[in-house]
Amino acid sequence: LGYEIMRIDPHQRWNPVYLAQPFYNLVLAAFFEWGVAFHDLDLEALRKGEKSKEELLRQLKGMGGKAATQVAKDYVAYPLLSAPLGKDGVKATLKANFTANIIRNVWAYAIIFCGHFPDQTYTFSQKEVEDESRGGFYVRQLLGAANIEGSPMFHVISGNLGYQVEHHLYPDMPSTRYAEIAPRVKDICERYGLPYNTGPFLKQLGMVQRTILRLAFPGGKPRPKPGPYKPDDGEAPTERKRNLFQRRKDGGSGPEQSSDGVRVSMPQS
C-alpha cells in the first residue's frame, strides 16, 4: 500500500486577518488555558450546523463553572487568607497568583506548540485523511508531531510531553513510558525511511515563532522537511542497543529534503 504525504500550501487562501496572528499569539501564550477552553467550544461546527445551540450552552455552562472555581480560588479565597497581613499581604497574594498563572500558561503553551507547530511537522487536510488505512493513520501521527530534547528533569516538568511523537502514536500509554519506547519508534523510522522529528527546546520554540510569523504574511517559501531518520554515523548495532536513549546531535532527523513531502510504502501486514 502506498501512502503519500502531500504538502499543504498555507498561503493558498490568505486572509488579511492573519496579520494579527503574531499579536494574539502573545495573548494566547499568556492566557493559554482560556484559549484552549474557547477552542474546545468548536464554534466552526456551530456555524456549519454540525453542532446545536443546546450543546454549545451546555459546554459554556461547564466552562463557566470551572472558570468561576479557579477565579474564586486564586483571586478571592487565597487573598482572603492573607487578610491578617493587611492590604499589602492581600495585594502580594493577588500579584503572586496572577504571575504564577501567566508563567504556567506560557510554559504549557511552549511545550504544546513545540510538539505540533515547528517547521519540520507536516499538516494534512480533511480530504487527505478520508478513508486512510490504519498504517496511514500512524504515519500521519508520526509526521504531524515533533519531540523536544531535554534532561530527565525537563521531561518531568513538561509532563513527558517532550515525547510528543510517542504521545501521538500511543495516547493511552502512561507518559512515564514514552522514554522507554522512543528508541523502538526510532528503529521503526530508520527501517521504513520515516522522519523522527526532534530537537532542543529553544530551537523548536524558535521554529514555532518563525512559522507563526511566516504564515501571517502572504507568499513566501515553505521550509524544507526533514528526511528519513538515521542514527549516529558509525554506531554499531550492539552500541545502539546499549545506548538506546542516545539522540543525534543535530536533532535526530536526516538531511532535509524537498518540501513536496515524503512517500512511504506501508507493509502489507
Entry keywords:
disordered N terminus; mainly alpha; two-stranded antiparallel ribbon; 11 helices; disordered C terminus; two-stranded parallel sheet; 269 residues; globular
How does this structure look, described?
- The chain is built from eleven helices and six strands.
- It has 269 residues and is mostly helical.
- The strands form three sheets. A two-stranded antiparallel ribbon has the order 1-6. The protein has a two-stranded parallel sheet with strand order 2-3.
- The longest helix is centred in the first third of the chain and has 29 residues, at 53-81.
- The radius of gyration is 22 Å and the shape is globular.
- The protein starts with a strand and ends with a strand.
Largest sheet: 2 strands, antiparallel
Strand order of the largest sheet: 1-6
Oligomer type: single chain
| Count of DSSP strands | 6
Q: Which descriptor suits the 3D outline?
A: globular
Task: Extract low-pLDDT stretches.
Answer: 1-11, 234-269
Beta-strand percentage range: 5-15%
Radius of gyration: 22 Å
> How would you state the average pLDDT, rounded?
80
Distance between the termini: 10 Å
Number of DSSP helices? 11
Summarize the amount of helix as a percent range: 40-55%
Task: Report the order of strands and helices.
Answer: EHHHHHHEHHHEHEHEE
Derived from helix and strand composition plus strand pairing, the structural class reads mainly alpha
